[in-house]
Protein: DNA-binding GntR family transcriptional regulator
Organism: Streptomyces violarus
Amino acid sequence: MKQPLKNKGAKTPPTTAIAEDRVGTTQLESVPEPKYWQLKTVLSEALDSEFSVGEILPNERDLAARFGVARATLRQALEQLELEGRLQRRRGVGTTVAPPRMGVSLGTGPHTWPGGSEDAWQPVDCAAAVPPAAVADVLETGREESVHIVRRSRVSHGRPVAAELLYIPQSSVPELSGIDAPSGAARVRAVLRELQRLELERQENAVELGSAGADDAKELDRLPGAPVLVVTTRFVVGGRTAALSVATYRADTCRLTFGDSGGVEIHDGPQRQAS
């Protein structure tokens, strides 16, 4: 009987390939790890120990010379680190160290309305408009009925990381006045203030991987089609949906966390864990 292949030393990179054996089954076969992948690991360690968030990396020629690799290999490693959210390439600036990922908590902690004292979302504007049909169905409003659509944003270390559309039926905020806060951020705060008068029964979260549409891509400073995390939150009062939040997060800047805490937390240090 063939013995399974083993990693014969700590210095041998743990890599695999699939090969057919003589009886048609498959086994793991050791192959060399790509050089750029090894370099990515070394660079990642250097980012943790030598650089701070926002710091500009040396140019490609200097980095390639330092690590003794071809510039093509270096570019592959840098591209991989950018995909993982460790680096950020900015036109006219260069390659900088990205902030730590933002923790998106989907825990079972206390339920709260948007706009509370610990809510870090920034109000953008609010308008009355007909929502998408799928949203109208969740809100149980007529498909031609206008609702309040609140736009908010999240920023971390000076860069946009999330955008939110909050749909609120007019029946959820019947006392809202258009005189005191006709538009803009003031209107957002007025809508959320009225919403908080309701007794929140529960909130339900769902998350899925998606791709950025034109509007989200522009707001999040990404290309259309870039990967995003879409977190949908349904706020329930009296068994009915009182509000629906659709928040779009940059997938390269966020991680999902599961626990007892609620809300979203941003952690400034790379060693701290999101919760």
In short: Residues 1-29, 261-275 have pLDDT under 50 and may be disordered. Residues 35-50 form the longest helix (16 residues).
